[in-house]
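Chapter summary example.
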Amino acid sequence: MKHLCKKLAFLCIPLVLYLAFFIAFEPNNYFGIRSGAGSTAPIARVRAFTAQSGDYLILGDSRLAHFDMQLAQQVSGKPWQNLAFGGASLRETLDLAQFALEKNPNVKELLIGLSFYTLNDKYDTDRMSSLQDTLNNPLAYILNLEYNVNTLTSFTNWLIWLGQRIGGETEMTWAQAQVERETGDWQYPDDYTADDGTVYPLHTRLAEYPQLILPNCQNWSLNEQQFERLLAFCADCTEKGIEVTILLPLMSDNVLEEVCTPLGITDQMTEKVLPRLHDAAERSGFEVLDYEWENRPDFDDDTQFFDGFHLDTEYGLPAFSQMLFSDLSK
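The structure predicted for these 330 residues follows.
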C-alpha cells in the first residue's frame, strides 16, 4: 500500500506542476493572486467585480471595454468599474447588470451601452449562465479548453516580453505589456485599394468593415423582448435611486452610409426606436447619450477609427472618453 501511494504521488507531480503553471499565467486573475487581470474577457471583469464591487459601473460590448479608467475618473470625478466585454449582446449586458445589482445593492450609477447592432434580433447571444457556473466552480475554469489556450498564449507573450526586457528593447513591466496587447497596439494598414485599382482615403480595415458586419445586419429587426426589458430595467433602477445613462457610441461614417441607410436601419432607428427610448427616458428619469445617430461627433474616420465600430486607442478613444465622461459629469 505504501509503495502504491508513492507511485500515485509521483504520478500527481505533473498535474501539480501544470496547475501551478496555469494559476501563474492564466490571464483573467481568476484566483486573485495578482493586482489585476491582463484581459478584458467577461470572466476577468466579473471575477474582479465579485472580489471588489464598485458603485459606478460600465456595461456593454467591446466599444465600451477599453476606456482608460484613470482618465474616466479624472474627468468625471467618479471611480468607474468596467464590466463591458467584447461581443456582449443586449441580453448579456442586462443579465450582467442584474447580477451586479444582486452582488452590490449599493450601486449608484450605471452606464449601459446600446447600439443598432446589439438591438438586432439576430444578435442575441446568451452566455451568462455558463459564466456564472464557471465563477462558482474553479475546476470548471481549470478544465476549460479556451482558458487553457489563453494561459498558453499568456505564457508565450511573457517569454517574448522577457526576451525584450533582457535585450533592453522595452522598459515596460509585464502588466503594462499585457494591457498593450489587450487593447491593441494598433497600426493602420495601407489605404484601401479596390479590385479595380482605385485607391480610397480609408485604411483597409475600416474600408472592409461594412462587408464584415453586413450579414448580421440584413433583414434587421428590433429585439422587442430585450428592448422592453431594458426600458423596464432602467425604470426600476431610477425608482431605486440608481442613476442610469444609456450610451449609443459612435460609428464610422462608412458604416452609416454603406450598411445602416441602404438596409433601412437608419429609418427604423430614428423614426421608431429612438422616439420610444427618449419617451421612456422622460417618463422614467434615466438619461440617453446618443452619439450614434443624433449627436454624432466630428471624428475623422481614417485617423480616429480602428474599424467601423472601434476607435483608435491613441487618436480616437481618449478624445471620445474626454467627451463622454465630461457629458456624464454635467
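To summarize the output: The chain has a mean pLDDT of 88.
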